[in-house]
Structure formats: C-alpha cells, structure tokens
Write a structure and sequence with these properties.
Blueprint: H1 2-10, H2 31-43, H3 50-68, H4 75-101, H5 103-107, H6 116-123, H7 130-145, E1 152-153, E2 158-162, H8 165-175, H9 184-194, E3 199-203, H10 206-211, E4 216-217, H11 223-232, E5 238-245, E6 252-264, E7 269-276, H12 279-291, E8 293-294, H13 303-356, H14 360-388, E9 392-406
Helix pairs in contact: 2-3, 2-4, 3-4, 7-11, 8-9, 13-14
C-alpha cells in the first residue's frame, strides 16, 4: 500500500541514521481521514501481509475518492456511501480469509487429513531449538573470529552480543555472501554490523523476545544463524566415536551413520535419517546423540563396516524415494483442485461485478483484474505441473561413527 511504499522509500539501504521517524499527516473531517479510519485501521492493515490486501485496498481508495468528488451527492449521502463501501471491502477481505481457511470443507476437496497441530509437531526439532541455535552461533563466532573471548555474554535467556569493529567487519563479509534480502530483520542486522555500537541485546527464546521488544530475536531465519549454518556446513562426512547412556538400548558398541535427505517437489523439506545395523539403535540414535560425549576417535572400525551402512541406507532411500514421488504427485493434484475451484469462484465474482458496474472506469478496472486473475492462474498451474515431475530425495552423508551405549543409571 502507499503508506508502506512511502516508508520503504525513506527507510532504505544507505540510510545512516540510527532511527527514522515517519509521520503521516491527516486533516480531521476530510475524505483522507475517513479513508484512514474506516479502511486502514479497521482492517488492521499493519497486521496483514502487504501482498494480500493491497489490490483490494487500492480499489477501495479509488472508489472512495470517486464518491468524495461526486457533485451529485449530498453530504449525508456521501457519508452513507463511504461507510457502505468501506464495510463491504472489510467484509470481502474477511470472507476471503474464511474461504481460504475452510476451502476443503466448502468445496469438498479430498485434502490429506493432517491437522495444524500435527504439522507444528512435525516441524519441531531438537536441532532447531533455542539451545541448539545458541550453540551453533557460539561455535561460529568462536571459529570465525579466532578468539577465546566469548561474544555472547550472560547466562539468562536475554544476552548481550559484544563484538569489536573488526569482528563486525568479518561477520559483514559473511552476511554479504547470503542471498540478498530486503526484510526489516536483515536490514537492521546489516545496519548494526556497519555501525559503531559494539553491544546488541539478543535472545534465542521467543518468549523472552516478546517480553523484551528491543532485543533481537535470533531465530532460525535470522542472518546470524544462517551465517553460522553456512560457515559450519560440512562438505564431507565427519567420522566420530561417541559414548552415551540409555536404558532402552542394549549395552554395546554399534556402528551408525546419519544422512541428510533433501526432499524436492511441491513442498521442500529436509530430514536427518539415521542408519544402524541394530533396529533399536537406529530408532533411538537421534535421541542418543543429543547427550552423547565424544571419545577417542582411534576406536573407529574399518571402512568396510561403513560401506555396509551405506548399503543399508541405499535400500531405505530407494523405498522412501518411491513413496515421496507418489505423495508429491498427490499433493500437486490436491493443489490443482484447490486452485481451480478458487480461480473459478474468483472469476465469477469479478464477472458479476463487471455486470453490475455502471461506471465505465470501474468496469475497465474489473476487466483488467479479470485478465490478471487468469494470467496468475495460468502461471501457478504451470508451476504446479512442473512440480509434479520434480519429486526427488537427494541424500548426502553427514556423520559416520560408532556409539558405545551403557546402561548405568546415575542417581
């Protein structure tokens, strides 16, 4: 929307001020005030994604101006038309949101039965927990800056990142190797790296970030965490020897391997896949390594044992690959069904608006909207059809090693 575009033109790359104040002047009792109050605040424009409501709000604004500039309406009629038009726009947005959330129920689509709670649970991972992200960032800072001085200060969830100008310069080099991003978090991170302030309040915990809005939330998508992951990424598999305690796995020493599977298709995903010759060890492996300690690497077995693990992995990958390809095609079919039904409903609504329009400008605008809707539909259909044939699992070895399991219980 125009306000967001105006902000983007002022607070942009090259801005050297630490803070930017943006003030929008609105005169009470004017048409602009009516537009601002009835449309922007009531819809909650600053809580919505810019792309979702931009088109609708642009149309409302234009129609409101048409009403305001009409010489045939009395002040009372003008106020009534303004209220009716803005309320209709609000209702349209809410109906579209409701339609999207209940699409399967409304149109009887055969969508896979996986609730949002299950999806959230599936996305949770020990490796993406605040503690793991903190260890990742700390390791990166220590290795990249080649110093024994701790950069993340504090023991509580709210910490202070303290870096010298030279250290910030090194991190800025790594930041520039990431894909270019224009989001606010990336811009603020770049601005701090270029600035003169050595300290930055940070936290890896979401609750702490909410309670301390001035602190930077180092989530999995923050540039610092992405820089750390890129720097620590292994080009070749690591070889380790570990020891762990467990009451669920028989005591003994076992060979194991962990592979990373990158799932390509309509929905991208990555998973860690454990492999071991003993099913009980394979089932518990990702849990065991969370508390395992590294021991003398000289205890590693011969390469032939790891080759046997690779053969086991290949059999597992072959079966998973076939299932993934079938599931990917099924997901594409569901999305095509959903997209087709939504597109028909959207076109029908626009065509009805064209038929009812009495203003030539509005009619022309709606016809252009219909052309854009068809073009968008064709593009998305082409992308889905391409995704239908792109199902693949690309595997790479991450770790080979042995793990010695003890059954001793510490009290």
């Amino acid at each position: 929307m125009r306000i967001e575009q105006r902000i983007g033109r002022i607070d942009r790359y090259g801005q050297k001020s630490e803070t930017v104040a943006i003030v929008n002047f609105i005169t009470p009792g004017t048409v602009d005030a009516d537009i601002y109050e009835r449309c922007l605040w009531r819809i909650g424009v600053f809580q919505h994604a810019i792309g979702g409501n931009e088109e609708i709000l642009g149309e409302i604004t234009q129609e409101l101006h048409d009403i305001a500039e009409s010489f045939t309406l009395t002040p009372k009629e003008r106020e009534q038309r303004l209220r009716q038009l803005s309320d209709n726009g609000i209702r349209q947005i809410r109906e579209e949101e409701e339609l999207e959330s209940r699409q399967a129920e409304l149109f009887g689509l055969n969508v896979p039965n996986q609730s949002w709670q299950q999806e959230i649970k599936a996305a949770e991972s020990y490796w993406l927990s605040p503690q793991s992200l903190q260890r990742c960032a700390s390791s990166y800072l220590t290795m990249r800056l080649a110093t024994e001085t701790e950069a993340l200060l504090g023991e509580a969830d709210l910490r202070t990142l303290r870096l010298s100008q030279e250290a910030r310069g090194k991190l800025l080099e790594d930041y520039r190797r990431l894909p270019r991003s224009s989001d606010a978090v990336a811009r603020e991170w770049e601005k701090w790296l270029k600035g003169s302030q050595p300290n930055l309040a940070v936290t890896f915990d979401q609750k702490t970030a909410v309670e301390n809005p001035k602190a930077v939330h180092l989530s999995v998508m923050h540039p610092l965490v992405r820089q750390a992951a890129r720097y620590l990424q292994l080009d070749e598999p690591a070889y380790v020897s570990l020891a762990a305690q467990s009451t669920e796995v028989p005591a003994g020493t076992y060979c194991f391997a962990i592979y990373r599977w990158k799932k390509h298709g309509v929905k991208l995903d990555e998973v860690l896949t454990p492999v071991a010759t003993v099913p009980a060890v394979e089932h518990a492996l990702l849990t065991l390594v969370q508390t395992a300690k590294e021991v003398d690497p000289a205890a590693l077995p011969p390469q032939a044992d790891f080759d046997a693990l690779d053969a086991l992995h290949h059999a597992k990958w072959t079966a998973a690959q076939a299932n993934h390809i079938a599931e990917n095609r099924q997901q594409v079919e569901h999305r095509i069904q959903s997209l087709t039904v939504s597109h028909r409903a959207r076109c029908k609504a626009i065509e009805d608006q064209i038929a009812r329009a009495t203003n030539d400008k509005i009619q022309l605008m709606k016809q252009s909207e219909l052309v854009r809707a068809n073009a968008d539909f064709n593009q998305r259909m082409a992308e889905l059809q391409q995704a239908a044939s792109s199902g693949d699992i690309r595997a790479s070895a991450v770790v080979f090693g042995t793990i010695t399991v003890g059954n001793e219980v510490h009290k």
